[in-house]
Amino acid sequence: FALPLVLFSAFWGLVGIAAPWFVPKGPNRGVIITMLVTTAVCCYLFWLIAILAQANPLFGPQLKNETIWYVRFLWE
Amino acid sequence: MGSLFRSEEVCLAQLFLQSASAYSCISELGERGLLEFRDLNPKVSPFQRRFVGEVRRCEEMEKTFSFLQQELRAAGRVPRPCAESPRAPVAREALRVQEQSEQLAQELREVTRNRASLRGNLRDLRQYLHVLREGQRFTSLPAPLGSPPRPRALSEREPILDPSLHQHLERKINFVAGVIHPWRVTAFERLLWRACRGYLVASFVEMPEPMEDLATGESITWVIFLISYWGEQIGQKIRKISDCFHCQVYLYPESESSRTDTIAKLHGQIQELSVTLEETEKYLAEVLDRVALVLPTWRVQVQKMKAIYLILNQCSFDVTEKCLIAEVWCPVQDLTQVQDALRQGSYQSGSSVECFVQRVPTSESPPTLIRTNKFTAGFQNIVDAYGVASYQEVNPAPYAIITFPFIFAIMFGDVGHGLLMFLFALWMVLYEDSPRLRQGTNEIWLTFFEGRYLILLMGAFSIYTGFIYNECFSKATTIFPSAWSVATMANHSSWSSAYLATHPSLTLDPNVTGVFRGPYPFGIDPIWSLATNHLNFLNSFKMKMSVVLGIVHMGFGVVLSIFNHVHFKQRHRLVLEFLPEMIFLLALFGYLVFLIFYKWIKFSAADSMVAPSILIHFIDMFLFTSNAENLPLYPGQVPVQMVLVVLALASVPVLLLGTPLYQWCRQRAPRMPLATGEQEPLLEGQEARNSVNATTEDVESGGHSPDAKHLDFAEVFMHQAIHTIEYCLGCVSNTASYLRLWALSLAHAQLSEVLWSMVMRNGFVGLNYVGGVVLVPVFAAFAVLTVAILLVMEGLSAFLHALRLHWVEFQNKFYVGAGYKLCPFAFTPDTWE
């Protein structure tokens, strides 16, 4: 759980905080920086919600018996 | 940031133009397309304006041009659009164009008239020729050798009326020959029979080749008739009857030799006429060529000229009648360019005195100008579709570049569909310069093409959300191994094959150690797509996600209003409006977000039996009650909630009364010369206008300002009350409105799952070669339905809802959108209909 958290936070932090410093000067600098920051915030938040919602599940998946029989041997 | 952040500074300016060089100055300005001209003569009717004569002249020329174009089109030529756009012509040139165009039109008319008459003549001659030829057949048949006339029924081939026999019958036989429309033949025959009682012989035969009917223009096979009769009276009757039936009657010479002579002469005449007709057609083609060469340029030139004169009509003359004054909205950045253009114009017209531009202060609200490039134009368009930003208000477009595709993607999340959309948009973007794509006439295609960057981003974000939802054409992918271990559960609960056979469905229990091994690192675990209760989990996840994202989006909107307050120097609104709004939002809905995250982190399967319901806690918070069965999430929850609710309720009256009271206090203070920017230009701006249009309003506005301010206070208070109610109720309803993110993503997921299981899966049933062949039409059906239903229909639906969320829920936190766009005077490219 900790590893993905660190990895993704670092990645989106890079996109949203570090990358804006490297945008070349030009008429579109402001727009590009806005885009980078907004993308980083939106995508990071979305991923964070997805992983937190599954961190402590209150109930488990209910599977059909065929699925159990198949997955049991396939995925382990 | 440039002008995408807020509108550029636009000022009111006055142009002083010399009458002599006014035309070329405006032409120069039009070529550059910088300024918007204001109408200084609004009360003057179009027929009384100064340059109405010139405008009328332009319109006459345009009429001639349209006649020329009609002729071109009738001859089947397609005029090419003008390659480079020529400048507007000066007066001499315009005169020349007018003369030449009229001359060409005259020539064209004459030539077409000649051609028509020549054609008519030719037709006549040919008909006569046919009549004679066919008539020969009846009247030149040799008589059966010396046999007396037999009493046979009169038929067409009877040589009874051969003129060589006429001495036997001692009567003079005359002929009437002509051409009649085939539909009238039977009626004609009947009438002749009834009227002339057998004293005639009529023969009808069809013309060997069809000819044009001059009246209708269609090709008809005419019927030639030859009537032989004897007696004068009969002759007159016959002629009258033929007149009635609109027949073309020709002179039928009686003797054989004269007939052959006439035929020969006709041949000669037809030959000559054909030659003349050919020459005429050649000349016509030449004239049309000349027209096609110059018409496009002329059209553009005259259009520009007319536009310039319409602009000149909007200017007013100053007192000395030597100088034109024009009032324009001009972006401040472009003032030097404008001066440059004026200088060029004066130089071109050869006048010695220069025209100049002067900036004029005004308190009217200028138009909004936001410069966009091909990428940002699409996003600015969807923002402007709701309302153009008020002057210098913060522009939501740069944020919408990302948030709009992101919100779309939440509702559309599927890797496969997102990839298809992305590739489609990529094709459009890579080939955007191809003329074939640009010149489409289908409006729907053009709409898609204009939004190609929008669709590109929408597809890209959909791929990302598709990965998070773990949906690729409704199938989950196991990029990482699943976090739920079925084997451990089976071993723990000893699920033997026999046990499995008797229990159709079993649940994995996360309380058992080893079954749940930590959250799936990227997105939703693939085991959920195999589970029968996956909607239970997904619904809870998506609803909470929608609420969290909605509150973050709305909070961002409220924060954007800071920029507006600071820019318009209304810092009191920072404290009296922004702060209460933020407190209300955060205390109630920010707390809800906190509860959601807290429950996710703190509560796990161990206490799943007693896990509190956030919804019930939230409702109890408002009602100041508590439910014994619903355990608190953290110790001290009830007092914390009470404080928050009180704080939120306290911020409402501050929001309601703060700003109006503040403004009232400022007015009651001794009348100091207020800076003109202090009163909100957004609310009402009917102060003095320092422009040429200003009349006695200037003098009077100073007089009735005390009354105006009192009235204004009631209006301000009303406005603020509406704003408060809208904001507070809006916070609640808009938060719920964001649940559409959940609803649409659920619909999309279900639709794609249904499509897969009901359509595509049937293709995999047959596992032999036949099954392989069957797979092809099944896949075709699947593909068509995917594109039609899931991409087009769902895409449009998600687009619409994302748009609504932006326009209403996001923008009503800070956006006014009551401005109007700067429409500069520019020569638009001619559209060739």
Task: Compile the SSE list and pairings.
The complex is a heterodimer of chains A (76) and B (833).
Chain A: H1 2-18, H2 29-55, E1 62-64, H3 65-74
Chain B: E1 10-18, H1 22-32, E2 36-38, H2 52-74, H3 91-139, H4 166-169, E3 173-180, H5 185-196, E4 200-206, E5 211-212, E6 219-220, E7 223-230, H6 232-244, E8 248-250, H7 256-314, E9 316-317, E10 323-331, H8 335-348, E11 356-360, H9 376-386, H10 397-412, H11 415-430, H12 435-438, H13 443-450, H14 452-469, H15 486-492, H16 497-502, E12 505-507, H17 534-567, H18 571-602, H19 614-623, H20 637-668, H21 697-703, H22 705-737, H23 740-760, H24 769-810
Antiparallel strand pairs in B: 1-10, 1-11, 2-10, 3-7, 3-8, 4-7, 5-6, 9-10
Helix pairs in contact in B: 1-7, 1-8, 2-3, 2-7, 3-7, 5-6, 9-10, 10-14, 10-23, 10-24, 11-14, 17-18, 17-22, 17-23, 18-20, 18-22, 20-22, 23-24
Q: How is this structure best described in words?
A:
The complex is a heterodimer of chains A (76) and B (833). Chain A has one domain. Chain A is 71% helix and 4% strand. Chain A is built from three helices and one strand. About 6% of the residues of chain B have low confidence. In chain B, helix 1 crosses helix 7, helix 1 packs across helix 8 and helix 10 packs across helix 23. Helix content of chain B is 58%, strand content 7%. The longest helix of chain B has 59 residues. Chain B has a domain of 342 residues. Chain B has 24 helices and twelve strands. Strand 1 of chain A pairs antiparallel with strand 12 of chain B, so a sheet runs across the interface.
Number of helices of chain B: 24
Number of beta-strand segments of chain B: 12
The total count of strands of chain A amounts to 1
Span of the ends, CA to CA of chain A: 20 Å
User: How would you characterize the largest beta sheet of chain B?
Assistant: 5 strands, antiparallel
Strand proportion of chain A, as a percent range, falls in under 5%
Average the pLDDT over all residues of chain B and give the rounded result: 82
Coarse shape of chain A: elongated
